[in-house]
Each structure stands twice: as C-alpha cells, then as structure tokens.
Amino acid sequence: MTTFQRHRLTPWLLMAPQLVIVLVFFFWPAFTALRQSLYVQDAFGLGETFAGLANFTRVLASRSYHEALFNTAIFSLSVALGAMALALLLAVMADRVLKAGRVYRTLLIWPYAVAPAAAGVLWMFMLDPTLGVMTRALTTLGIDWNFRLDGTQAMILVIIAAIWQQMSYNFVFFLAGLQGIPASLLEASAIDGAGPWRRFWTITFPLLSPISFFLLVMNTIYAFFETFGTIDTTTSGGPGGATRTLVYKLYQDGIVGLDLGGSAAQSVLLMLMVGLLTLIQFRYVERRVQYH
Amino acid sequence: MRYHRPGLDVAAHTLLIIGALAFMLPVILAVLASTQSPGTLFSGTLPLSFGTSGLDHYMTLLTEPVRGVGVPAWRLMLNSLLMALGIAVGKLTIAMLAAYALVFFRFPFRRCCFWLIFMTLMLPIEVRIVPTYGVVAELGLLDSYPGLVLPLLASATATFLFRQFFLTLPPELMEAARIDGAGPWRFFIDILLPLSRTNIAALFVIMFIYGWNQYLWPLVTITSADHATLVTSLKRLTIATDGTPPWHLATAMTVLALLPPVVVIILMQRWFIKGLVDTEK
C-alpha cells in the first residue's frame, strides 16, 4: 500500500482521539485494577498497605466466590448451548426454504436489538408468580412456580431470557455460514444416496464447526458480561445468591460494598478468564468460514 | 434438484412459523398488558386483546414523573438517545480517523499504536467497572453526559473493521489522488468517506443498539434523574414493593425501551447483518 510519507504530524493528529480514549478509559482503569488487587485498603479508605496476593487468596477461598463461579458456569453453558442449538435448528430450516428465508430472518433477528434488561422484564412478566401467563400453565401441570423464592427457578428465568435474546445473534451467523456451503457438495452426497439427516451430520455440521466454536466463545462472553441487566432487573442476584454471577458479585462487592482490593482481584481474575477464552479462540479458529 | 423433498419444506415452514411466533410472544403479551387497566391485569387472567386503557399508561409515563425515577419517560428516552448517538457517532469518528492513520501513513511506533488499540478488543467495560468509576470520578465527570459516553468508546471493534476495509482498497486510488495533488485530508473527505458509506451505516446500526441498551455503566455512573437512561430505569418499575410490580406501567415502559432499537434493526436490516458479520470476522 502506498502511503502519505511526508506528513509527520498528520498521523498523530488522526490517532490522537482514539489513543487518548484508550489510554485514559482502558489502560488507566486496567492498571488501577492490577495495582489495587495487590493492596489492602484500611477501614476508612485513607491508607493502603501492600498485601501481595492476599486479596486473591481471600477471594478464591470465599464460599460466595465459589458459588458465583458455579452459577456463572451453569448459566453461561446453558445459555450458549441453548441459544446455539435453537439458532442452528431455525437457521437450517430457514436455509432450506431459501426464498422465504429472508422473511423469516426479519422475523427472527429483532430480539438482538432488545436490551438484555428489557428481555429480563418481558420474561419476568410472563413468569410472574401471581399473574404470569406461563405461571398459570405451569400450575396446571402441577409445578409450583415462584422464582422469587426458588433459586433454581430464578436461574431458569434468567437463562430463558438470555437465550431468547442471544438466539438471534447466533441465527445470523449460522444462516450466513449455511449459505456459504457449496450446493455441489450436498448434491454429490445426495447422488451417493445420503438422506437429509445424514447429509447434515456428515457435511453441513463439520463445515459449520469453526463458526460454532466462534459462537461458543462469543456466547460465553455475552453470558458473562452483557446479561448483568437481565439479572439485575429480574432477580438482583437472588434469591439467596442463586443467580449471582461473577460480574454481579463484582458489582456488589466493588460498587455497593466498596471492597476495592477484593473487587480488583475479581476484576483481574475475570480479565484472565476472558483473555484465556480469546487466546483459545485465536488459536483454534485459524480459518474462518467464508460468508460472502 | 433431485434431492429435494417437499415434505421437509412443509416441516421447515411449520417450525419457522412456530419459532417466529414463540419469539414474538413475550412482546405481544407485554403490548397487550400495557393497554389493560390495572384492575383487569391483577384479576389474574390476561385477556388476549387490547384493553380499555389504550395508550393511557404510555401517556402517564411520558408526561408524569416515573415512579422512583423522578423525571418523565420522554426525558429518559432523550437521555438514552443522546447516549446511543454519542456512542455511535463518537466511535465511528475516532475509529475512522485512527484506521486511516494506521493504513495510509507510516510513522514511528505505528505497530505499537496498533497493539495498544487492539488489546481493548478483549476486555468489555464490565470487567473494569470499579476502576473506571474511579478514573471518571478523578476527572470530575461523574453523573454527566461525557462521563457516560467516553468510557464506552474505549473499544476497537470499529477501528478493526475500518482497517480491514481500507486494506482492501486498490493502491491506485491513492496514487491517482496524489498525482492530482490531493493532500491527506482531501483524500479522506473526497474519496475515503464516500467509499465507506456502507461500512458506516453497518457500524452505526450495531453501535446505536449497543449504546441504547447499555445498563451497568449508566447504573454506576449516573446518580441524578436528569441524566438517567430508559433501560437502566426499568428496574424502578419491576421492584416488587408489595409482592407484584405495577405491571401495567412496567410493560409499557419496556415497550418504550425496546421500540427504538427494534425499529432501527428492522429498517436497517441489510446493514445490520453486514455490520454484525463483519465486526466479528
């Protein structure tokens, strides 16, 4: 690529806004978190003492952190697998009926635009213990539904709301991936006598595996971070911490509880987890599927 | 095609219709509930038709201070709109300029700048929420529009996309511009900007939705009703003070919160899909 070479100042003027924003609002907080995770603040917030890894051992040893870790694992796994399975099923169907596929695409992608917090409220209404439409159906089935009291039911509520919201994202990617699979491959296989079921598992599914892996990582990140609003508007992490995920605990300890050292250690641990996920993604998804 | 089975097409249409309806159901029920009088709603059976209250609850929300928030919903919508536009326009501007510098100029520490910016791809703001609060407090920007928008601009997805796009442009474009005596700003405004129209539209949709739907950061940084956003205020109506939330208002407020981004996504669907697939590549 040819470049503007004689301009010395211009590139820096162009870079300046982005660099300033990134340095001030990304690196400064990130380093503050790193630093604070190694210090303990005194009770009045006036002084701090170096504590080594004490914050980390305290966080990692606490039962509430273990519970949050467990909740996050259950939550993100359920959301990722649920939203991906549903999206794959619908995308395969939409890909079949190619001409009408666009109409269905419009009908299925809009939940992406709904705020996670709003998605939570929608499902909270349907599953309201006293007047929810679905609660009545569940009562008829003999299920005593009250997510305000039952931890498992609260978890199910936020999982459903998150799947409902995240499905559309996966649907867009699966549909794009499916449309990128050459028809000749499927035709050849059909001539060899393979039925639709067999064609899906021997050709379509393996060809979609890079995209599925990518979506698995993106869904996990979504479940980790963006669902804060879903949880906060519906269960506030309750009852009894049953829906308190790692980010929710970070918020409660750091912003509400003002435990700077502990929340900074949690931040650093979360950064490590996300960093690891991203690395795995870069390592294993070398060749992305063609979309166009 | 010899392997086509009409029976499967019928099954596919059936499944897709059921799926589309199932996904619409929560919103349909919320819209219906928002038009019912509180009495009907709390009697226990939600009628599957519009209620007698019509748009009354919406008018109440939009004109009178919302319970627990202190300002009417139109103000919340205005704040959400300002936040969403600020994030979308801000990100597009700084990303385009930075990508332009990275692709079309050679300068010292270029690679270093590249890595500084792209490291931000990995960590969303939720991870560093507490120290970000500290930084914004130190800058005296708590509870203000700049404090709301600026920290959310610190991500590189848009820069990455523009860089990818600029790299695909033929080098002759720039040769020609140089021979014609165009400087870097001329080239940017007359050639690059018009060529980037589709990418700008695509990213705008993604960023607008991202901005409008922000929850945790506004919750943490905004303390006065004057700057409160709509999505973050939803919780004020879902907290059950006496067992059941005021659902006639909560559903109406949720509809107000989801309508603008859903309208944007449906109207700009083509760009949205391009933007979504491109940003993650």
Give a quick summary of the entry.
With 292 residues, chain A is an all-alpha fold. Chain A has helices spanning 10-36, 54-61, 63-96, 98-109, 116-126, 133-140, 151-179, 183-191, 196-207, 209-226, 228-234, 246-256, 260-284; strands spanning 39-41, 48-50. Chain A: It holds the Pfam family BPD_transp_1.
Name the features.
heterodimer, A: 292 residues, mainly alpha, MetI-like fold, two-stranded antiparallel ribbon, 13 helices, disordered C terminus, B: 281 residues, 15 helices, cell membrane (chain A), membrane (chain A)
Helix content of chain B: 55-70%
Can you tell me the number of structural domains of chain B? 1
Q: Would you identify the CATH architecture of chain B?
A: Orthogonal Bundle
Q: What is the CATH topology of chain A?
A: MetI-like fold
- The domain count of chain A comes to 1
The Cα radius of gyration of chain B reads 24 Å
- What is the averaged pLDDT score of chain A? 85
Count helical runs of chain B: 15
CATH topology of chain B: MetI-like fold
Distance between the termini of chain A: 24 Å
Oligomer: heterodimer
Q: Largest sheet of chain A, if any?
A: 2 strands, antiparallel
Give unreliable regions of chain A as ranges: 287-292
Q: Give the strand tally of chain B.
A: 0
What's the CATH H-level superfamily name of chain B?
MetI-like
CATH class of chain A equals: Mainly Alpha
The rough form of chain A would be described as: globular
**Span from first to last CA of chain B?**
32 Å
Broad structural category of chain B: mainly alpha
Q: Can you offer a commentary on this structure?
A:
Chain A has helices spanning 10-36, 54-61, 63-96, 98-109, 116-126, 133-140, 151-179, 183-191, 196-207, 209-226, 228-234, 246-256, 260-284; strands spanning 39-41, 48-50. Chain A is mainly alpha-helical and 292 residues long. Chain A has one domain: MetI-like (MetI-like fold). Chain A has a two-stranded antiparallel sheet with strand order 1-2. In chain A, strand 1 (39-41) and strand 2 (48-50) form a beta hairpin. In chain A, helix 1 crosses helix 13 (260-284) and helix 10 (209-226) runs antiparallel to helix 13 (260-284). The relative contact order of chain A is 0.14. Mean pLDDT of chain A is 85; it is low at 287-292. Chain B has 15 helices and no strands. Chain B has helices spanning 6-34, 38-42, 56-63, 73-104, 110-118, 129-138, 145-149, 157-167, 171-179, 184-195, 197-212, 216-221, 230-238, 247-267, 269-279. Chain B has a single domain (60-279), classed as MetI-like fold. Chain B is mainly α and 281 residues long. The longest helix of chain B has 32 residues, at 73-104. Classes of the chains: A mainly alpha (292), B mainly alpha (281). At the A-B interface, helix 1, helix 3, helix 4, helix 5 and helix 7 of A face helix 1, helix 4, helix 5, helix 6 and helix 9 of B. Chain A: Keywords: Cell inner membrane, Cell membrane, Membrane, Transmembrane, Transmembrane helix, Transport. Chain A: This is sn-glycerol-3-phosphate transport system permease protein UgpA.
